[in-house]
Write a structure and sequence with these properties.
Layout: H1 4-10, H2 24-35, E1 46-50, H3 54-62, E2 72-78, H4 94-111, E3 115-116, H5 124-130, E4 138-146, H6 164-167
Antiparallel strand pairs: 1-2, 2-4, 3-4
Helix pairs in contact: 2-4
The chain binds flavin mononucleotide.
Length: 171
């Protein structure tokens, strides 16, 4: 089994997928990992839609150039009205909660031997118009998931992390 830091390094944004279908159990495990994510006040104000109907998949693929024909497409939405809020700063934690849920899904996919990508650049209005189930949510990501293609590789960005000294200090 991977230790966590190794898993975190090995995860990369996969943009080349094979046609190999993803086992149901693996999709369920990704959702289980999402549910395990912490959220402010434990409000769990998020939802994932698994886009399985071929017509629905077409709509979602049309909403972004970054779907890479992955066999699995998940959409993550957060509900600001129901999310926890800081009493002191009034910050609404919906997007932060969504970020943690999304990170759990990406890392779970990696742990299960799958490739995955967080797509933030998509036409959310087009999706919300097509799927009324998403009413009241802010859509924060589309997650193409599947087995990485033989030629899949990380982009150069994956290797361009700042040094710890640039990102962290003792105060
Ligand atoms: C919130 C968020 C939105 C992103 N949106 C996109 C996107 O729309 N298209 C894309 O190709 N990659 C997207 N990415 C992937 C990033 O470009 C990628 O994580 C970054 O370049 C680091 O590379 P790595 O994930 O391979 O380590 C997104 C990542 C995050 C966290």
């Amino acid at each position: 089994m991977n230790d966590f830091v190794t898993l975190a390094h090995e995860r990369y944004s996969c943009r080349q997928f094979s046609d190999r279908p993803v086992e149901r159990i693996k999709i369920d495990k990704i959702i289980e990992a999402a549910i395990a994510a912490p959220t402010a006040c434990d409000n769990q104000a998020w939802y994932v839609w698994e886009v399985s109907d071929p017509i629905s998949q077409k709509v979602v693929r049309a909403s972004t150039p970054y779907h890479f024909n992955a066999p699995v497409l998940l959409i993550l939405g957060v509900k600001p009205d129901e999310a926890g809020e800081s009493r002191l700063s009034k910050v609404n934690f919906a997007d932060i909660d969504g970020g943690i849920v999304g990170a759990h899904m990406l890392l779970a996919a990696q742990d299960l031997g799958l490739g995955a990508l967080w797509v933030g650049d998509f036409n959310a209005d087009a999706i919300q118009e097509a799927f009324t189930e998403t009413d009241g949510f802010r859509l924060v990501g589309i997650f193409p998931i599947g087995y990485a293609a033989d030629d899949a590789h990380p982009s150069r960005h994956h290797f361009e992390r700042k040094a710890a000294s640039e990102l962290c200090m003792q105060i």
